[in-house]
TrEMBL record:
<dbReference type="Pfam" id="PF08284">
    <property type="entry name" value="RVP_2"/>
</dbReference>
<dbReference type="InterPro" id="IPR021109">
    <property type="entry name" value="Peptidase_aspartic_dom_sf"/>
</dbReference>
<protein>
    <recommendedName>
        <fullName>Aspartic peptidase DDI1-type domain-containing protein</fullName>
    </recommendedName>
</protein>
Length: 137
């Protein structure tokens, strides 16, 4: 997989293509996502309680299903914190320091256009929960 860990991401995202390939069940919603320099568009749905497994570590998470070009999956800060993930670029790896299943995961630094660093547009949910309601994403 080409998955991105984004320390600034507030939600998990999975591409429409990958959600179909994995056979994820989507719950329709009225949420919208906004990529940088574009208008907000509705998401395709939310996949709830998806088991995320990285090496020996696993956790359930919810994913917003959206069109994406560069990556199939974007992991949010909450999931990174739950796994106690620490990027270690000097070792080209990510360390998962969870007490039950610590491990090192090889990382690939993607470069496009002959050595230039790839740039990813940020995603932002445009509609929040109603006052007094929680938001599970």
């Amino acid at each position: 997989y080409d998955a991105m860990t984004d320390t600034g991401a507030t939600h998990n995202f999975v591409s429409v293509v990958e959600a179909r390939r994995l056979g994820l069940t989507l719950k329709r919603g009225e949420l919208r996502k906004k990529a940088v320099n574009s208008e907000a568009k509705p998401i395709h749905g939310v996949a709830r309680d998806v088991v995320v497994k990285i090496e020996s570590w696993s956790e359930k998470a919810n994913f917003s299903v959206v069109p994406m070009d560069d990556y199939q999956i974007i992991l949010d800060m909450e999931l990174l914190s739950a796994a106690k993930m620490v990027p270690m670029p000097h070792l080209r790896s990510v360390s998962i320091m969870n007490d039950k299943s610590p491990c090192m995961v090889p990382a690939v630094i993607l470069r496009k256009d002959k050595g230039k660093v790839a740039m990813i547009s940020a995603l932002q949910l445009n509609k929040g929960p109603k006052q007094g309601d929680g938001m599970d994403l």
